[in-house]
Amino acid sequence: MDEFIDSTNYQLRIMKYEKPKTNDSTPALAAHCDTNTMTLLYQNEVNGLQIQSIDGEWINMKPSPNSFIVLIGESLSISSTYFLHHKVWLNGRLPSPFHRVMMKGNEDRYSLGLFTRPKGGYVIKVPNELVDDNNPILFKPHDHEEFLKFFYSENTQAAVQSEGYITRLKAYCNV
């Protein structure tokens, strides 16, 4: 755990989603999985966060006023499609949620996000304790910063446009 904490950068972000000025549900943030390690979210009373279930249904998140939402990011757990999950650091144990923000009405939505991600040069690898005959290693060790360069490259983005949502990490360091 100490290695994990020492290898992590943190970013605190305040996010404002403008009121859509309509009562129709409008996308405020496109559907995605976070590329980081983990996200802690706190929001005002204006809901809008939706998480996609394994069967493809969008679920409205309505947290209590004094709670945080924890989202596992792709560097901890990689999603390959909406329904099929492959995970890196936890070697297939937990999924990264596909999520979006949908808004309607006449109120702005504010949220506070604490994003964690591996520091450049830190090699993400599955701990030996999580690999056995029933759980073979799924991904080669990799530097998250190098993966992000690949993730945002023109060739990778072009593949996403032509093939839909693909597993970029799987293409980058699959075993």
TrEMBL record:
Where's the Fe2OG dioxygenase domain? 8-118
Residues in coiled coil: none
Q: What's this protein's name?
A: Fe2OG dioxygenase domain-containing protein
Tell me where on the tree of life, at the top rank, the source sits. Eukaryota
Q: Which Gene3D superfamilies match?
A: B-lactam Antibiotic, Isopenicillin N Synthase, Chain
Protein's organism: Gossypium arboreum
